[in-house]
Amino acid sequence: MTIRRKLFFLCTILAFLALLVTGVWYQAARDITSIYLNSLSKSAMRDAYNAFDYILTDTKHMCTMIALNEENVVEPLAAIENNQVEQNGVLNSIYLQNQRKIKEYISSMNGYKYYIVGIDIVSSKGYRFSSGHIVQNYDELSRMIAETNDQVLSQSMVMMSPLHVDSTWLCLSSDFVVPSVRAILDVNRQIVGYAVLYFDYSVIEQMFTDNLPLGSLFQVQNDRREMIFTNCGDTPMQLYETDKDYVYSTYSAPAAGWTLHMMIPSAAYTQEIEHSLYCSLALTLAVFVLTFGVATAISRQISGEIAGFRNAMHRLGQGDLDVRYQVSTRDEIAVMASTFNHMVARLKKLMNEVAAYERQKQEMQLKLLQAQINPHFVSNTLNVVAWMAKVQHADNIVPLTNALSRLLRSVMHQHENFVPLSSELEYVKSYLEIMEYSGNYLFEVDYAVEEESLQLFIPRFILQPVVENALVHGFSRSLSSNNLLRIATSVQEDRLCITIEDNGSGMTEAQIRALLTEGGRTEVSVSSIGVPNVVQRIRMYCTEPYGLQYTSEPGCYTRATFTLPILHQAEAPESAALQQERMSHDEQDSNRNRG
Predict the structure, then answer these.
(1) Which residues pair with 555 in a beta bridge?
(2) CA 530: distance to chain centroid?
(3) CB of 414 closer than 8 Å to CB of 529
(4) Which of 161, 169, 303, 581 could form a disulfide with 4 if both were Cys (CB 3.0 to 4.6 A apart)?
(5) To 10 degrees, what angle do helices 267-317 and 3-67 make?
(6) Which helix (H) or strand (E) holds 519?
(7) What DSSP letter does each residue of 260-316 carry, written as one string?
């Protein structure tokens, strides 16, 4: 199936799914309407309560300020409570002085807030100090205070049930006030009385009514299920919550200890929602038709570009390196085309370079073959030189040629990755013997090799570069006869440890880092293998935690420590043939020396 057909098929499926989703959405939208109405009801209740909450908070602050006023309320009221203020029905001066102080204070606070129509201070003994005659039935107020938990009254203001008042001379728009009560505590945290603020009931009614949706029913009940406010009678609204013409919801206001009940008419809001639903459906269909047409046009253009791109790649696959693809757009396909053209040009350039490199490589290999000398020929020639030196009684030449011959035999088998430790040590001994004859170094060698370690296999050519480094860096500036090179081996649990230590000039940390990374060679180097090459090969063959570490102290010593795995002949079979061949060459050298 072509990409154009796939895109058309995809657009068709999307169209069907869009219509299906639209139908489901239309059906579900009607169910969402009820959720919207519930949310609207809760939001209306929240707004109505928030409008009143600011005034309620101010009332709490004012009530708390009065109840905690030490000089004008707490101390005078405590004096009245804790002293004998009445004798034979006559109030003494203690009462009168403290009464005057309390009344002057609450009279100055009266009118501080427009919604507070009166303030009372009531002592525990029953004495009442009022800024004005508000409540006709103080017994009802006393009963509500007695029924309220003293601990609650000691910590916060409590809104009581509305009380009837005579509003004719108070100029109130309502016949009720809502008392707000908080306990007054002396220095011993004992209740000595209560501060009572009378809240204008009409303010509550106005606050809630102004924030209600038109036609809504609203009730406010306290925690004793007493009606604080209602605009639909005293019958609890919970009895009508199943009415389909209204949406019932409730809201808890713990700060006031009230529960708000509300029923809003659903018809008006549903009509608006259904109208919006029809408009949304029509708009959705129009947008879908337009989108389908645009998507079809775009898919046709994209599929055409992709088809052209495919043809260009097909030509490249047939070997046409001159193919190029041009696009007129600036989208992702244009980026791919630009990358394709760059790739083709780069590929053509690389193929030309590879062809030139191969021709050059063949020429160099031919020159190398022409100039190559067979290592066996060199080894046999050295044997002849040793024999002739023996005949001419030049005995000091024989050990040198034999040492060089042993080095060459080791080079002949560089394809072997692992050799026995004994073979590697023989290679090092031959190298050291040659360096002694050079006359540039004076040193002694101390071998401390455990017998069981000699048959273990290690990577080849890893000891000589380290020994060479000890000579070049440790003894190069010293012709002292005290120069000592110590080579030691030990088998520790599951690893082989090889230590090469010299008492030469030592190295700093920076020199050690340079040695392990740069590994510069000297002109007298026996091979092109440096210390970094040794480190890399150990990591390649043996992995972690094996490797080579250097420790040194300038002017004292340098110690190189190899940590290698325990490898026997069965684990390195490729080295067995090399060992046998070297043993045969050693026997030949021995026989030749005896001859």
Answers:
(1) none
(2) 44
(3) no
(4) 303
(5) 140
(6) none
(7) EEEEEESHHHHHHHHHHHHHHHHHHHHHHHHHHHHHHHHHHHHHHHHHHHHHHHHHH
| pLDDT tens-place values along the chain, 595 residues long | 566 666 667 777 777 777 777 777 767 776 777 777 777 777 777 777 777 778 888 888 989 999 999 999 999 999 888 888 888 878 888 888 888 998 889 888 877 787 888 888 998 888 888 876 666 667 888 888 888 888 888 988 888 888 877 655 555 666 788 888 999 998 888 999 999 988 887 777 777 777 666 777 888 887 777 787 777 777 887 777 777 778 887 877 776 677 888 888 777 666 676 677 778 778 877 877 787 777 777 777 777 777 777 787 888 787 787 888 776 677 777 778 788 788 888 888 888 888 887 776 665 554 444 444 455 556 666 666 766 676 666 666 777 777 777 766 666 555 577 889 999 999 899 888 888 877 677 889 999 999 999 999 998 889 988 998 888 888 866 666 688 999 999 998 889 999 999 998 889 999 998 888 875 555 455 555 688 888 888 888 887 789 999 999 998 999 999 999 999 875 664 433 444 444 555 555 555 555 4
Q: Where are the beta strands (DSSP E) in 23-175?
A: 86-87, 90-91, 116-123, 128-130, 158-159, 163-164
- The position carrying tokens 């309220």 is 148
- Residues whose CB falls within 8 Å of the CB of residue 449, separated by 6 or more in sequence, listed in order: 421, 425, 487, 488, 489
Distances 452 to 289, 456, 463, 561, 568 between C-alpha atoms, Å: 88, 8, 18, 18, 11
5, amino acid identity: R
Vertex 169, ends 59 and 109: CA angle to 5°?
A: 30
d(CA 207, CA 51): 7
C-alpha span between 399 and 402 (Å, rounded): 5
Residue 135 is given by DSSP the state B
Comparing C-alpha atoms, which of 121, 140, 137 is closest to residue 129?
A: 121
Q: What 3 state SS string does 437-458 have?
A: HHCCCCCEEEEECCHHHCCCEE
| pTM reported for the whole predicted model | 0.41
What is the spatial distance between Cα 496 and Cα 488, in angstroms, rounded to a whole number? 11
Q: Tokens for 257, please give them.
A: 């200890």
Q: Shortest CA distance to 338 belongs to which of 307, 309, 302?
A: 309
Alpha-carbon span 450 to 488, nearest angstrom: 8
Distance CA(73)–CA(415), nearest Å, equals 107
Nearest-angstrom CA–CA distance, 537 and 533: 6
CA gap 408, 376 in Å, rounded: 8
Q: Which helix (H) or strand (E) holds 540?
A: helix 531-542
- Enter the tokens of residue 82: 């804790």
Give the HSE-up count for residue 133: Cα atoms under 13 Å, Cβ half-sphere. Answer: 6
Rounded to whole angstroms, how far apart are CA atoms 217 and 477? 109
Residue 190 CB-density burial (10 A; 0-12 exposed, 13-18 middle, 19+ buried)? middle
Enter the tokens of residue 272: 């608006």
Which two structure tokens, joined as six digits, stand for 436? 């002694």
